[in-house]
């Protein structure tokens, strides 16, 4: 059994950008026993905040979280600016066999990519492909990015190997996700189990299903949206949790 969590951490700040809560996020993630965490909007570097924000870690945010949580990590830059960069990260109990960050952007003002890592539970065990995404707000661009992701899955990952795709899809209507399921042959955990996508945004009164966990080649055991205290006072998104059997 594998346990997964996906979370847009809002760069380590609460939903109003008033408080730096990365330490609180680490405490809560430690309390949820998982094998893999998919993270979006996580800083690799931010020199201004490092100099001014109390409690800002000396290391990258994903290293700070991995230190107490899960020992292995991969990071892919999405947005790069003068004083730093942020993007997607995958933290894992198991070491990465390989990983790659695939750029799907065509606009310099809105850089997007998806992070693909491969792990194995044991040396000779089957590979498990992990893809962390944070897609564009604009519908036509989001559709294009998901089409690229579908083609990538179909061309790069063998049909008989398991895949988990998780992250912030920014697909509030759900139409893009349905198209992605048809193109990739994957299923979304919450829609498959409960008939609809989990509502994850905004965290205090969620009514939009922006975050997703798609799967192929594994069996869904259970899924849950972590709501209530303290999650609704942390990031602007709620995290999603799912368990699968390989």
Summarize the structure.
By secondary structure, the protein is of the alpha+beta class. It has 6 helices and 12 strands.
Written description of the protein model:
By secondary structure, the protein is of the alpha+beta class. It has six helices and twelve strands. The strands form two sheets. Strands 3-4-2-1-12-11 form a six-stranded mixed sheet. A six-stranded mixed sheet has the order 5-6-7-8-10-9. The longest helix has 18 residues, at 139-156. The mean pLDDT is 92.
Helix percent band: 10-25%
Encode the helix/strand succession as letters. Answer: EHEHHEEEEEHEHEHEEE
Got a strand count?
Answer: 12
Low-pLDDT stretches are none
Computed Rg: 17 Å
Shape field: globular
Q: What average pLDDT do the residues reach?
A: 92
Going by helix content, strand content and strand pairing, the class is alpha+beta
Mind summarizing the main beta sheet?
A: 6 strands, mixed
């Amino acid at each position: 059994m594998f346990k997964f969590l996906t979370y847009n951490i809002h760069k380590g700040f609460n939903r109003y950008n008033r408080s730096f809560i990365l330490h609180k996020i680490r405490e809560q993630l430690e309390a949820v026993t998982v094998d893999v965490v998919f993270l979006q909007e996580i800083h690799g570097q931010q020199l201004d905040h490092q100099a001014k924000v109390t409690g800002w870690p000396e290391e990258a945010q994903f290293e700070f979280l991995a230190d107490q949580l899960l020992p292995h990590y991969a990071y892919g830059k999405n947005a790069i600016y003068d004083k730093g960069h942020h993007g997607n990260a995958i933290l894992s109990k198991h070491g990465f066999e390989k990983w790659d960050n695939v750029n799907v952007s065509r606009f310099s003002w809105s850089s997007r990519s998806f992070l693909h890592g491969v792990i194995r539970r044991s040396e000779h065990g089957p590979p498990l492909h992990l893809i962390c995404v944070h897609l564009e707000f604009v519908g036509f661009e989001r559709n294009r990015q998901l089409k690229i992701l579908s083609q990538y899955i179909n061309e790069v990952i063998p049909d008989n190997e398991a895949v988990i795709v998780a992250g912030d899809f920014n697909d509030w209507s759900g139409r893009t996700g349905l198209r992605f399921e048809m193109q990739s042959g994957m299923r979304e955990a919450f829609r498959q189990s409960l008939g609809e996508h989990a509502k994850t945004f905004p965290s205090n009164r969620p009514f939009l299903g922006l975050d997703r966990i798609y799967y192929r080649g594994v069996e869904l055991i259970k899924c849950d949206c972590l709501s209530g205290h303290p999650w609704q006072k942390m990031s602007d998104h709620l995290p999603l949790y799912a368990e699968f059997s390989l």
